[in-house]
Design a protein that fits this description.
Strands 2-3-1-4 form a four-stranded antiparallel β-sheet, with helices on both faces. It is of the alpha+beta class. It has seven helices and four strands; from the N terminus they run βααβααβααβα. Helices cover about 40% and strands about 20% of the residues. The structure holds adenosine-3',5'-cyclic-monophosphate. Adenosine-3',5'-cyclic-monophosphate binds near residues 54, 59, 111 and 112.
């Protein structure tokens, strides 16, 4: 597997609890390089656009309200097999199912306030990166 990029969000529950550094340490220990990073406060509209694929889900309102409730840290991660590697270090969506040592097992509060987002495929990573970052903001 070649060097790949993925998109990551450190969510409001984690930024509020001052966990940005602890989460970044987990990502870096897993061999992922943070090649771009910004702290932003998403508007509701920006969150709704990002999670458009979940529009029909019962948790859509709760999800977009939460993601626009406080600052998040958005990132581009790079590394060998970065999409899968990031999903491994994040752990399962629901922290109750997450494996020991993963970010969600250690830090997530529940399935909604689950501390991190990571792209689920290389194709979606490209779309998600372009939704938040300009090319010149990704410095390697
Ligand atoms: P994320 O990887 O950001 O992608 C979609 C998000 O929807 C997911 O993480 C969860 O935080 C959220 N989500 C999934 N299932 C539920 C649920 N049952 N209730 C609330 N939020 C959910």
């Amino acid at each position: 597997m070649a060097i790949q990029r993925t998109f990551s969000i450190i969510k409001p529950d984690a930024t509020k609890r001052n966990l940005t550094g602890a989460i970044n340490a987990k990502l870096e220990e897993a061999g992922l390089r943070i090649i771009a990073q910004k702290r932003i406060h998403m508007t509701r509209e920006k969150a709704e656009g990002f999670y458009e694929v979940h529009k029909e889900r019962p948790f859509f309102d709760e999800l977009t309200e939460f993601m626009s409730s406080a600052p998040v840290v958005i990132q581009v991660l790079e590394g060998e097999d970065a999409v899968a590697k990031n999903r491994l270090v994040m752990g399962s969506t629901n922290p109750e199912d997450a494996e020991e040592g993963t970010i969600r097992k250690e830090y997530a509060l529940n399935v909604g306030e689950n501390s991190v987002h990571g792209s689920d495929s290389a194709e979606n990573a490209e779309i998600e990166i372009a939704y938040f970052f300009k090319d010149e903001e990704i410095v390697g």
